[in-house]
Structures are given as C-alpha cells and as structure tokens.
Specification:
The chain has 787 residues and is an alpha+beta fold. Helix content is 28%, strand content 25%. Bound molecules: cytidine-5'-diphosphate.
C-alpha cells in the first residue's frame, strides 16, 4: 500500500554531509588511527643531496640502536628485485637508492623499530658515503650539452630528454599566423606547487606469511589501480592483495602515485611477518611526494585587428623531476594541456611539449585539475588579456567576440576534443553583471586619476573532466572506467559500493542522492562504501574531477538497472503488466489509477518474500560505466584588486565566480568545492611555491616557507551559477572539484597586471608575492616592463 512520504532529497537538495557526523566528533578513521597487534614502525632516511653518487652505506650503528628490528637498504631491496618500481607514466623509479641519489629527499634507507620515535632516531646511525654531483634544477639547464645525465642507469638514455609530444596542425597554424595583423606573445612559468593535503601520506602494511594475504591500509586516491600495480610489481596474486583506503584527509592528486614508502613497508612486513606502519612528516610530504605544475610555457596568439583570433601556437618545457611519474592518461604526455584553446573558436592551433629530467622530486600530479588543464587555462587567459590590451579592446569584449557560441555545440576543437556543451556568453554576462563590470571600470578610471593602482581581471575557463572513454584513456593500460554496485535490503535500506575513493568531497552524501533521485530511497537510508578493494567494484580512482562524470554515472546507471527489476516486482504486486507501471518517487503506480500504488520499500521487501515465479530473488545489481565522451564544465571569474605601490601588496576587493558544472547534485557541496578551489587558486597566484636553489636544495619544505593561506588572507568569494547539463551524462552532471583552481589563478594575475598596466608591466610570474610585485613596479618605473 502506498504511503505519503516526505519529498525525496535527491538531486538539487543541499543535504547535509552524512560523513561530517564522524568527522566533527573526531571519530574519523585515518591511516594513523590504524593500530594492529604487534605493529612495527618505519622511518625513511632521505638524501640531503640533490645529485650524488652513493659509494657505500654503513648501517651497523643503526642496527645496534635500541628498539631497531631491521635496517633496509636498496641493496636488500635489490635482492628481492624491488630496488626499482614502475611509475604511472611507464618510467622506473628507485624505491631505495642504490647507485645514486637524484633529488633532495629521495629515499635511501629505512629503519623498522618497535616505536616510531626510535625508528626516527636510528636514522642518525646510518652513515652514507655520498660523492656530490652537480645538480640540474631546470629543464633549460637539463638540455645543455654539458649537463650531467641524471638517469645514467637507463641503457637507452644518453641525455635528460624524456619525451617530445605534439598536438594540433602545425602547417595550418603557421598559415594562420601568416595572415595575422597582430601576434601576441607570452613567456611564463607556471611554478611548482604542492597539493599539501592536511593529512600526509602513509600506510600500514600487514602481510601474513602463513596465508600470503597482504592487507595494506594506505592513503590512496586510487586503491584498485594500486592493487593491480602491486600484483604486477611484487608478483603477488591479486586476490591476496587488499588495499584499504580509510578516511583520507585531503588528496588533491597527491595521493594518486605509488610512493617508495608503501613498497618498503610492504616488503618489510613480508620479511618480518609483522604489520609495519609508515607515516610521513610534513617535510617529507612536501619534498618527496607528487608535486604539481612546473611548466615553462611559451604562447603566441595570432589575431586580426578587430580582435578575431586566428591561431594559437604554444610550446612548453616540462620539468618532470628525477623520475617521470606523472599521473595521467598514457596517450597524453602532457595530460590534457592541448585543451589550451580554451573557450575560444580557434580555427588553428599547435601544441609542442618536451619533458626533461631534473634533480627534483617526481610527480606531476593532477593537483585539483584534470591532468595539466590548469596550466593550459592559465596560458590562454593571460594571452587573451594581453591581446586585448594590444588591440585596445576591452578584455570582456575580446572574449565574447571569440567564444564558441552555444549553437556550435557539440564543438570539435582543433586539438581533438569534442566539447559536449556550453554557454560561455551566459556565464560571462552573469559574472559581469554580478561584479558590475561597467561600474567598476568607471571606478577604476577615477581611482587611477587619483594615482591608485586599481585592476580588474577576468578569466573564462573551459575544463575537461571525466576521463575517460576507453578508446583514448588508460593508465598503464588500465581503462579509465568505473563500477558501482547497489544492493537494496528487504527493509528498503540500501548499500551502494563505488569504485571512487572520497577524500573529503562528500561522496557518501552526493552519491546517495543520485540513488535517491533514481529510486526514491532517502539518502540517509543509503550507505555508501568506498576505498576497500575487497568490497567495492573496480575503478581507476578519484582525481581530476572524474568521480561525478564517471563513478556518479555508474551509480545512476546501476540504480536504473535495479529500478527495472523493481518495476517488474511492482507489476507483480499490483497484478498488472510491467508496461502499465509508472514510477513517481517513491511510489510505483498503475497508469491511469494513481491510487493503486506500492512504494520502493514494498517492492524491496517483496524481492525477498514475494517475487514472481521464474524471477531471481533479491534486488541488486552492478554497472561499469565507460563514458562516451569527456564533459566540459566552464565559467567566468572576475576579480578586482588594489595594489599598494609602496609595498607591492595587493588586496582583493571583489571576487565573483560563476561556475557551470551542469546539473548540481548537492548545491551546498558544490559551493564548498568552489570555495576550496578558489582558495587554492588564490594561493597559487599569491603565495604557494616550491622552488630550489642552484644546488637543488628544496625551498618550501615546511609551512614556514611554503605559504598556505589561512582564513585571514583568503578573500571573500561571491558565487553565481549557470546550468548547462551534460547531454551524455545520465543525470546531466559535470565535475566541479577542480574548476575553481583551474580557472582562478589567471583571474587574480590578470587583475594585478591590469592594475600595473599604466606603469607598463605586462607580466609577473606566479606567485605574485608583494616583493615580486614591488620589484616589477620599481623595474617599470626605471624603464623596464617588469617580468
Ligand atoms: O572527482 P571529485 O569527487 O574530486 O570531483 P567531482 O566529481 O567534481 O565532485 C566533487 C563533489 O561535488 C562530489 O561530492 C560531487 O558529487 C559533487 N558534485 C555535485 O554535487 N554536482 C555536480 N554537478 C558535480 C559535483
């Protein structure tokens, strides 16, 4: 019998995050909370040199220290064929150094002790005989003839070059440039930054020597892929490997790669027959785990005098660090950088990229971005701003003139993407209206006449998320699809198991809302499980805003599959043909007789108690989703700043962000994602930087040097939205997790450059610290143009 129920809190409801109950009570279960009987502790000795030969390692003093159970070196790992491991880019990476160290902070040896402090203390007892070698700290110096070869252990490697990659049409682009009235150029470095999650990386490896069962608790954004990599590297049977990613205190791409610490802890547990815990400290996290960006970019845009864009030419040098370990689809060497044409209807473009080894930590992770789209978005939006100045066209107008029009979708870009949908003009108009662009420009004129440095910056980004269709997207051959499994219990409560791994994005709430939308079960009645490879379906993990586009789609599809069976059972209960059943959440009703109804809960009970003859019992299913295309969130960001000419400090007066991520599952969570992303974008524009001195010493190795904004520095954000559903996603959603970090740095920088424009400043590389801005002002006053 049907019942009147509350409105189902499916898509579009700002349901409070279910997971927050445990987090705000301090009841989360993070990696350092995992305690196992007899557990030992591991600490890692890291190289103080960026580049040095290892002549020998003496572990005898460390071995004799109190509480020390074992000291592991690369030599010992080599005896088990584990001194080197594959990276996600198909390169190799030293697990523990044997021949040389290649970056400061590289793993050299590990101590296993009965206590974490004793393990750390014993690192001082390991004597390593290093012979320092010259360090290479930029791709420009890596390509010099006299540069030392960093990867001299590789037989086929005679220099530091890793790859050359191109996209687009070079001849067509050259022809477009030949037609141009104006060519605008920009050289810029998108500096190395670090995702710096609150929780550092770590693991607890528990290998049972009797059964061969390896259970590894690990801070991983991609537990299933890690399981397969472990099986392939260590030769362990995959069914005996269980990766459990418990609660994760932020990932942002940093927790995608497999780090040497995981491998050493697992090998140590195997050899010692006891669980081994390894937890990084903050400096270890900042100096040795997946960095982001570090692209030296050159861009040229060809235009007609009226502002029409004719072509785009970009070349870039990627600083990959000592091991090529980028976490990105195999086919695309610089991730999805070739989305660099952005939101514009560019008839020709060509992208060339070269990657180099340097004596820096490896990584190249998707730090809140879809595999290098951040760098691309920054480059085009800075170029467009400069083009506007040179043509004396308003920066908003030049964008509007060249935007892909909403009638042009699906739009095939010249670098090979098919943009599924968009309405760039609408997002731009909304942002301009919210910030009162015309009024601000008037105000700017007045402030400028009073000698003030006032600037307005725009950035219109097009994102590309949801990797990806199996034809083009894989990591180490593994296709980037995702699974979902849904089981409805007799009482109508459900368990959804997903291949995604949440790191704070609220999937336990939003994915339950997707099922609620499809089946009419309230989100609080749906438990969402993730992060345990024994108990969830296969998938490639959570990064690059792929959860909603891929795993979220799998969730909607499995709910629909289960819904089809539910409809058959409802027909059986109501004694009509299944084609005569309609579903009005949460009721199945008879067409034309809405009073004859059963709820999804009635159906669930019947699935175990009263199902038709010939039907299997139960109400459950699974689904593996292969997206037909990527999906393309977009937006326009507008920023107003005032720069203090005496100090170089810049203050954000207004920041308006209009995002379009398609249908919003949970508007409150989406806004939280955007706030976080904007804060990270602001941080990269203003203060976050990992840099190196000439000897390869990492500067930015702690939170005194690597500046993370607090609530005090973070500007106020004003959010707006437009909604352009993805035409191919089952619920019309696109991703949002990264857009704000992708789109906003250019808006902040464009605003500061706009403020300094009257002085003749055309570029300052990020981060725009007050010292750098001040220097640019002084250089401009002295006759230069900044830089
Ligand atoms: O891959 P990741 O989860 O980091 O990014 P995402 O797919 O963009 O999702 C981030 C969070 O925002 C998740 O909880 C999503 O379900 C939610 N979201 C939403 O509510 N509506 C959208 N259109 C996109 C994401």
């Amino acid at each position: 019998m049907a019942t009147e129920t509350d409105e189902i809190r499916g898509i579009g409801h700002s349901v409070r995050r279910k997971e927050d109950d445990r987090f705000i009570r301090g009841r989360g279960n993070y990696i350092d909370d995992v305690q196992l009987p007899g557990m030992l502790h591991m600490a890692i000795l890291r190289s103080p040199y960026a580049h040095a030969k290892i002549n020998g390692i003496d572990t005898s003093a460390a071995q004799a220290m109190p509480g020390v159970i074992a000291v592991v070196t690369g030599e010992l790992m080599a005896q088990h064929n584990l001194a080197w491991m594959p990276t996600l880019s198909g390169d190799t990476q030293a697990v523990l150094a044997t021949d040389k160290v290649r970056f400061q902070g590289q793993e050299v040896a590990a101590v296993i002790a009965d206590d974490p402090y004793r393990a750390k203390d014993a690192l001082d007892g390991i004597i390593v005989d290093y012979e320092a070698l010259p360090a290479v700290v930029s791709p420009q110096s890596a390509m010099a003839d006299a540069a030392p070869v960093i990867r001299d252990e590789k037989e086929d490697q005679s220099d530091n070059h890793i790859y050359h990659w191109e996209s687009g049409d070079k001849d067509k682009t050259d022809a477009a440039f030949a037609q141009a009235d104006l060519v605008v150029k920009l050289d810029t470095h998108y500096p190395r930054s670090h995702p710096a999650p609150l929780e550092t990386c770590g693991c607890v490896a528990d290998v049972d020597p009797a059964t061969g069962q390896a259970t590894i608790y690990m801070t991983s954004q991609a537990p299933h892929a890690v399981r397969t990599v472990f099986a392939l590297v260590a030769g362990l049977p995959e069914e005996n490997i269980r990766i459990v990613s418990p609660d994760i205190g932020g990932g942002f791409g940093n927790k995608v790669p497999v780090y040497p610490g995981y491998v050493v802890a697992t090998a140590a547990s195997l050899l010692l027959g006891k669980p081994v815990k390894w937890i990084e400290d903050r400096t270890e996290n900042l100096i040795s785990t997946g960095f982001a960006r570090d692209f030296h970019m050159h861009g040229e845009m060809a235009l007609k005098r009226d502002g029409t864009m004719l072509g785009l030419r970009t070349s870039l040098l990627a600083d990959e660090g000592a091991f090529h370990a980028d976490a990105q689809p195999s086919k695309f060497k610089v991730g999805l950088f070739h989305i660099v044409t952005g939101s514009y209807d560019l008839p020709a473009a060509h992208v060339a990229a070269d990657g180099y080894y340097t004596n820096k930590a490896p990584g190249g992770v998707a730090y809140r971005c879809s595999f290098r789209v951040t760098e691309a978005s920054y480059l085009i939006e800075r170029l467009v701003q400069n083009a506007a100045y040179e043509l004396d066209i308003d920066p908003a107008d030049i964008r509007k003139k060249n935007f892909i029009d909403k009638d042009q979708f699906p739009y095939e870009s010249v670098t090979g993407f098919v943009y599924d949908s968009g309405d760039y003009h609408a997002a731009m108009e909304k942002a301009l209206e919210m910030i009162d662009y015309a009024g601000l420009r008037e105000e700017q004129k007045k402030e400028r006449s009073d000698g003030k440095l006032w600037g307005i910056g725009l950035a219109s980004f097009t994102e590309v998320v949801g990797a990806g269709p199996h034809k083009d997207y894989d990591i180490l051959g593994l296709k980037m699809n995702d699974g979902a499994e849904l089981r409805i219990h007799p009482t109508g409560k459900a368990i959804l198991k997903i291949s995604s791994k949440t790191q704070g994005q609220g999937h336990e709430t939003t994915f339950a809302q997707i099922v609620a939308e499809e089946l009419g079960i309230q989100p609080e009645d749906i438990k969402v499980m993730h992060g345990d490879t024994d108990n969830t379906p296969y998938g490639l993990g959570t990064y690059a805003s792929r959860s909603t586009p891929v795993s979220g789609a799998a969730t909607a599809m499995v709910a629909r599959r289960v819904g089809e069976k539910a409809q058959k059972i409802a027909a059986h209960l109501l004694e009509v043909d299944e084609n005569d059943i309609e579903f009005h959440r949460p009721n199945f009703t008879v067409k034309g007789a809405p009073d004859r109804a059963v709820t999804i809960q009635d159906v669930a009970f019947a699935a175990y108690t009263n199902f038709p003859d010939g039907m299997e019992a139960g109400l459950e299913g699974n689904y593996y989703y292969d997206p037909p295309n990527l999906t393309f969130p977009f937006g326009t960001y507008a920023v107003a700043v005032e720069v203090d000419p005496e100090t170089g400090e810049w203050e954000v007066k207004r920041m308006v962000a209009v995002d379009d991520c398609g249908v919003r599952i949970n508007p409150m969570i989406v806004e939280g994602q955007i706030h976080g992303g904007l804060t990270e974008g602001y941080a990269i524009a203003a203060m976050e930087l990992i840099t190196f001195d000439d000897d390869g010493n990492c500067i930015g190795a702690n939170f005194m040097d690597y500046l993370i904004p607090t609530a005090v520095e973070t500007p106020r954000f004003e959010l707006g939205e437009t909604v352009t559903p993805s035409p191919h996603h089952p619920i019309g959603a696109k991703g949002v997790g990264e857009s704000a970090t992708v789109g906003s740095p250019a808006a902040f920088v464009n605003a500061v450059i706009d403020a300094l424009r009257p002085l003749g400043v055309t570029n300052i590389d990020m981060p725009l610290t007050s010292a750098k801005v001040w220097e640019a002002i002084q250089a401009a006053k002295a006759g230069g143009t900044g830089g």
